[in-house]
């Protein structure tokens, strides 16, 4: 008889398992909780980007048991196509992101909070400049070694990427929306069996925009509330292999939609089952396959259903080189006229190489196919990335990155086609 000892994946630090260092939690507290895995990542080989670097990792301020990590990032980005259209217009964008994170361990209660400001300033097209804000608060209470409960909230204002499939083409400024999210969950272990559950809510309030003539363009119809519930069960056959089942339910409501338009309200579910494994010390991962279905209230939108998939594989070719493969297939909501959803199939591959302790080189490629429902439209999106991260010391780090995106469209209503190149150089200062 054995007890499987696992720790959560980096994005799931507040879900299951033992406590992680504050820095591991800080990285994801402002990210979408729905992207977190409910499965585990085993202790074993450490990926290049996850490896501790005591000589170069930032050191937080410690005040009466509270760890405070200030950070300021500043960078300049050349964008060859700021509007993401076939008629490319370029510009130089300056970006500043101050952020403050605080964490404390109060007995069995682990609490982390973060606040961030994100200012983007375009030098030649000032009406594209935006300011985003975000605040996050999360906590985990350990009842016993086998039982934890956790909760969190994330709030702020975000700017929609011009390359997003739902981003309108006729607005002179990018669309912004306010969001409020919250989640509550629990996990319990029964020797080889571990069960986790989570409920969440996200509310988005889209701001109206204006076209090139100054006319108001309504975006309220896109405002919506998303309710989700997840449950996962994982059974360990050995210390290196386990099987899991995930079930997710969702309900989407659009309260501000015009009565003259078909209702976009819908509900659905996603079921996946698969394996979580570690093959020797050079490869680990999790692969899940299943089924998804989304039913709409209005008969104007067809039911969307099909194969669901999600996978992550890490290959440690050497202690200094990590390959990471991600894949996903599922349904995404759409606010484009004539359709309520599209099926997105995506895959990405990235290599991270540690040249020196303080220098990491990265290269990656990705592909996504979007198949819209109820209208004849398909997108094929290709991308590539090159990056270098250089740490000058615990407080200062430099980063350079180049990325490319090429989007092809097909169908009777093909939508947008464009190519975009971006080159960024920046500096980050953090810690004491």
UniProtKB/TrEMBL annotation:
Transmembrane segments: none annotated. Residues 150-169 are annotated as: Disordered. It holds the Pfam family BBP2_2. Keywords: Signal. Residues 1-24 form the signal peptide. InterPro entries: BBP2_2. This is Outer membrane beta-barrel protein. It comes from Sphingomonas cavernae.
């Amino acid at each position: 008889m054995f007890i499987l000892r696992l720790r959560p994946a980096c994005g799931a630090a507040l879900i299951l398992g033992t406590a992680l260092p504050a820095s591991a939690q800080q990285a994801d507290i402002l990210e979408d909780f729905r992207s977190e895995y409910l499965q585990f990542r085993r202790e074993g080989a450490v990926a290049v980007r996850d490896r501790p670097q005591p000589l170069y990792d930032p050191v937080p301020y410690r005040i009466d048991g509270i760890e405070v990590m200030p950070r300021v990032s500043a960078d300049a980005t050349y964008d060859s196509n700021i509007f993401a259209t076939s008629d490319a217009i370029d510009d130089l964008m300056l970006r500043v992101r101050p952020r403050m994170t605080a964490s404390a361990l109060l007995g069995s209660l682990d609490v982390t909070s973060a606040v961030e400001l994100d200012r983007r300033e375009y030098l030649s097209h000032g009406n594209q400049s935006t300011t985003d804000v975000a605040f996050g608060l999360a906590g985990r209470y350990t009842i016993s070694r086998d039982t934890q409960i956790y909760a969190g909230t994330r709030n702020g204002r975000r700017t929609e990427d011009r390359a997003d499939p739902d981003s309108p083409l006729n607005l002179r400024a990018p669309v912004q929306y306010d969001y409020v999210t919250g989640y509550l969950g629990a996990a319990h272990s029964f020797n080889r069996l571990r069960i986790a559950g989570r409920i969440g809510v996200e509310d988005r309030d889209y701001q109206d925009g204006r076209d090139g003539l100054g006319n108001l363009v309504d975006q309220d119809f896109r405002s919506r509330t998303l309710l989700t519930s997840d449950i996962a069960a994982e059974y360990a056959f050995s210390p290196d292999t386990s099987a899991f089942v995930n079930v997710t339910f969702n309900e989407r409501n659009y309260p501000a939609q015009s009565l003259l338009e078909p209702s976009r309200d819908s509900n659905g579910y996603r079921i996946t089952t698969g394996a979580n494994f570690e093959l020797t010390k050079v490869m680990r991962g999790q692969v899940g396959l299943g089924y998804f279905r989304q039913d709409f209230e209005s008969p104007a939108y067809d039911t969307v259903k099909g194969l669901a998939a999600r996978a992550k594989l890490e290959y440690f070719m050497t202690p200094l080189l990590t390959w990471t493969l991600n894949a996903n297939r599922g349904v995404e909501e759409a606010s484009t006229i004539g359709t309520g959803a599209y099926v997105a199939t995506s895959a990405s591959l990235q290599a991270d190489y540690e040249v020196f302790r303080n220098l990491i080189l990265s290269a990656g490629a990705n592909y996504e196919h979007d198949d819209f429902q109820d209208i004849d439209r398909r997108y094929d999106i290709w991308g590539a990335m090159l990056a270098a991260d250089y740490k000058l010391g615990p407080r200062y780090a430099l980063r350079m990155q180049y990325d490319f995106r090429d989007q092809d469209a097909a169908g009777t209503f093909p939508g947008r086609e464009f190519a975009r190149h971006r080159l960024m150089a920046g500096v980050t200062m953090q810690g004491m």
